[in-house]
């Protein structure tokens, strides 16, 4: 039996850690690793067209499965291309192992062709970034990297010179047990007792939820019912907390809607559950705040806290809910529910007025029809920019759907690469990329990856020929839009030229049929929808300075977007509100 080399041993360890595929672009320093994958039936090499796509795809796969995913880049420019997608994965707490191949070890530090120092370059977007300098070091170093990525939730980077990868592996490398899942974290008794006392003393409590409430929907609902609390959410909390939620008051922040802002500002006690919500301007500074988070470094970095609780949301509520006294007064909760319904009704009227006849097509209408037609377990990947707004306001979560985007890193061009990673986890599950024309065109080359692997991703392209969110930012600053227009091709024709299904939609009456046809198509498809560039959305709460900025930018019409079926949800919840 031939002796293993380091690359083969490296791949064997990844397989034992649950990695099923390695996304990347081949290159000379990576050749031993790619060849090791070729000869190992338990793992696949996924050839993408750009390494940034590889990192985004791995991050999405990790978010869908909860397990370790992996990507790779060859030396120098190859692995540098990974960095944007790795930042996104790290900020999303997605466990990703990145292999940064390196120049020959004997040339490091001598200004060799394509030389960089990846073990240093990736430190800011990883929990662990180290270089393998000998075959004997590799197994333990890779194990350590895997355990950092899984245990802390985020990225680990392993730098491996190509010549080391090709050397014989140690004869008796220890086969060590690997961490493949994370434990739950329970707060201390003191913090539980303190938080229970704060809740009992408060008349009006609001819960504001983020992605840390994943898997804790039932616990949050039980807790909200016991203390009669409205429940708002950040964008990353939407998919986990909005559905089957009779206490829902919407979303706060730049993309927000409903009464979440009022609920967080008019309460006596605000409890932040599993959220690292970055916009402190939308958080109150005159109410008591308690925060629960599994990452202690996040406690108190957005707002002044009266109590910091280190623990995951599910375990914390399991301990906390039995200790709080039930509240019977629903006045604050009912008031916020009514405000929420009224706020949604106001924007829905603007949305429904002849929108099905408007040309160019309103993007709100596109998102609403998409929400109605998509599968109940669909995965939506969402480009940064105005697509974030339409997804936040129109895609209805139900506990089975997933909504993934660059919500913490805010990168353009994320939706298509993330759709690739999501689709590889399950070819039979519907995956929809909500792409803007700016983001799609930035990494458009990887549409070819869909065709190469016959991935049935459906790209719904919101094509307004502009960078819509940037235009909005300019208006808020009182600046005329400049440098934001795109001269686009017929993207449907481009899709067909690539060998995929492509259709262009310019009239609202054509939309539903085009989406149905694309969804029925068994392979990759692109629906190029020409949308209104004037359909921009403003936050539910804006400052005097923002209003002034819009007045100075009066060359554009700003429409406040609707919120789709969420208005129906709010009205349904109001039927349960006792009348005086």
TrEMBL record:
Domain Thiamine pyrophosphate enzyme central intervals: 192-320
Record-annotated Thiamine pyrophosphate enzyme N-terminal TPP-binding domain positions: 5-120
Tree of life domain: Bacteria
Thiamine pyrophosphate enzyme TPP-binding domain residues: 383-529
Pfam families in the record: TPP_enzyme_C, TPP_enzyme_M, TPP_enzyme_N
Assigned keywords, A-Z: Pyruvate, Thiamine pyrophosphate
Alphabetical list of Gene3D superfamilies matching this protein: 3.40.50.970, TPP-binding domain
CDD domains noted in UniProt: TPP_POX, TPP_PYR_POX
Family: Belongs to the TPP enzyme family.
Protein name, UniProt field: Pyruvate dehydrogenase
Origin species: Streptomyces ortus
């Amino acid at each position: 039996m031939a002796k293993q080399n380091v690359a083969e041993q490296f791949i064997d360890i990844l397989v034992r850690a649950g990695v099923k595929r390695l996304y990347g672009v081949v290159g000379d320093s990576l050749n031993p690793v790619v060849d090791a994958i070729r000869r190992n039936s338990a793992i696949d090499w996924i050839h993408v067209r750009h390494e940034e796509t590889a990192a985004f795809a791995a991050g999405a796969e990790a978010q869908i499965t909860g397990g370790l995913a992996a990507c790779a880049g060859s030396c120098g420019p190859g692995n540098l291309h990974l960095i944007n997608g790795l930042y996104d994965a790290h900020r999303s707490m997605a466990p990703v192992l990145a292999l940064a191949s390196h120049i020959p070890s004997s040339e490091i530090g001598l200004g060799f062709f394509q030389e960089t120092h990846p073990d240093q370059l990736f430190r800011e977007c990883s929990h662990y970034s180290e270089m393998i300098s000998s075959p004997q070091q590799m197994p333990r170093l890779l194990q350590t990297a895997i355990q950092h990525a899984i245990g802390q939730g985020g990225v680990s980077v392993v730098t491996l010179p190509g010549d080391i990868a090709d050397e014989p592996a140690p004869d008796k490398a220890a086969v060590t047990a690997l961490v493949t899942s994370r434990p739950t974290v329970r707060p201390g008794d003191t913090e539980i007792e303190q938080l229970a006392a704060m809740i009992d003393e408060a008349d009006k409590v609001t819960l504001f939820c983020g992605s840390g409430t994943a898997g804790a929907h039932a616990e949050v609902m039980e807790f909200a019912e016991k203390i009669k609390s409205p429940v708002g959410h950040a964008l990353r909390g939407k998919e986990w907390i909005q559905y089957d939620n009779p206490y829902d008051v919407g979303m706060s922040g730049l993309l927000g809607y409903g009464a979440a802002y009022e609920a967080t500002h008019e309460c006596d006690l605000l409890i932040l559950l599993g959220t690292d919500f970055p916009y402190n301007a939308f958080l109150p500074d005159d109410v008591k705040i308690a925060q629960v988070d599994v990452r202690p470094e996040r406690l108190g970095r957005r707002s002044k806290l009266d109590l910091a609780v280190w623990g995951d949301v599910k375990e914390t509520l399991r301990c906390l809910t039995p200790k709080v006294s039930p509240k019977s007064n629903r006045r604050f909760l009912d008031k916020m529910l009514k405000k929420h319904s009224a706020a949604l009704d106001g924007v829905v009227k603007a949305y429904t007025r002849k929108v099905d006849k408007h040309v160019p097509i309103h993007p709100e209408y596109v998102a609403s029809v998409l929400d109605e037609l998509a599968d109940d377990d669909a995965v939506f990947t969402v480009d940064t920019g105005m697509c974030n707004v339409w997804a936040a306001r129109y895609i209805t979560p139900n506990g089975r759907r997933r909504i993934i985007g660059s919500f913490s890193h805010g990168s353009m061009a994320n939706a298509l690469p993330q759709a690739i990673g999501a689709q590889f986890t399950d070819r039979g599950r519907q995956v929809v990329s909500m792409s803007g024309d700016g983001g799609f065109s930035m990494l458009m080359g990887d549409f070819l990856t869909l065709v190469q692997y016959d991935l049935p991703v459906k790209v719904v392209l919101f094509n307004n020929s502009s960078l819509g969110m940037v235009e909005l930012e300019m208006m808020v600053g009182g600046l005329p839009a400049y440098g934001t227009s795109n001269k686009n091709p017929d993207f449907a024709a481009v899709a067909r030229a690539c060998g995929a299904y492509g259709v262009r939609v310019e009239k609202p009456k054509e939309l539903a049929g085009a989406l149905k046809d694309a969804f029925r198509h068994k392979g990759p498809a692109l629906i190029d929808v020409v949308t209104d560039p004037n359909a921009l959305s403003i936050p539910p709460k804006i400052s005097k300075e923002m209003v002034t900025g819009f007045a100075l930018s009066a060359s554009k019409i700003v429409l406040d977007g609707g919120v789709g079926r969420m208005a129906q949800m709010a009205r349904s919840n109001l039927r349960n509100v006792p009348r005086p």
